[in-house]
Amino acid sequence: MTVIVRDVRPGVPEDAEAYARVRRAALPYMLATGPQVAYDLAHAHPGARTRPLIAEVDGEAVGTAEVSLAHESPEPGIGDVNVFVHPDHTGRGAGTLLLRAAEEHLAEVGATTLYSWVLDEPPCVAFAEKHGYRPSRSAYFLRLDLTTAELPPLQAPPAGVELRTAAGFAADPRPLFELDGVTTADEPGDVAAELDDYEYWLASTWNHPLLDRELTTVALVDGRPVAFSAARTDGLGRYGSAMTGTHPDHRGRGLAKLVKNDSLHRARAAGCTEAFTGNDAKNGPMLAVNEWFGYEIRAKETRHVRKLG
After folding, report:
1. Closest Cα partner for 309 from 83, 135, 77?
2. How much is the pLDDT for 194?
């Protein structure tokens, strides 16, 4: 039973579905669907040199790899590689073959530093260390059971603050793009990101198949967005917080709690049963907000780094 690693074929639904199926099994805290995988591949930024890989045994998908350059980083030569192996098929060499193919591709397109998220489980950490990766910063996956959670009661916005859904910006989402850029700029992380391409943001974020505009809540002051909680849903009852952010000039007013609470209430009313989110381990304010809602930490992952050459 030989393991074969190949590219995910654009426009082939079976490949996208198999890729998503492995992702859900290996990392159940993040949303993944076949249509989402196909969309991401079709709308990948040219500068990212994206190359999703899939590992097969006798035609069955057993592993995948996310492979790309960090095109939004102002620092050149940053590559990302995240390897996932189905829990039922570990120990067969699929992870090693996927990583080797990913590293070769990234080296060819100019990457000199590679980052990889690794679950804090002994086999995963040992695999990363064996291949020359060293730990950097950590993050948590959190889960909230929406069928039993006692969400905080909905509250009226403070004076001068208005709540809307992202659907209300369908005619002109640029104000949300600008707010997303401001909040992303100071998000904790070891690789900086700059959102300055509106057309790409429209394709990769605003029109993304998982983005649920009706469940995404935005707070406005004087008609301008100042805080938001972006929601993603997969049609399987799962809700994911893609990003919750507040403009630096309006922090400390409880707006993050306000928009996220409204979004979670909308999610439960829409039939979502599970809510997932992730936080950098050093992002104390958002960890406190999620603890206030009742989220529980379910797993920890650590970003590992390796210098090529």
Report:
1. 77
2. 66
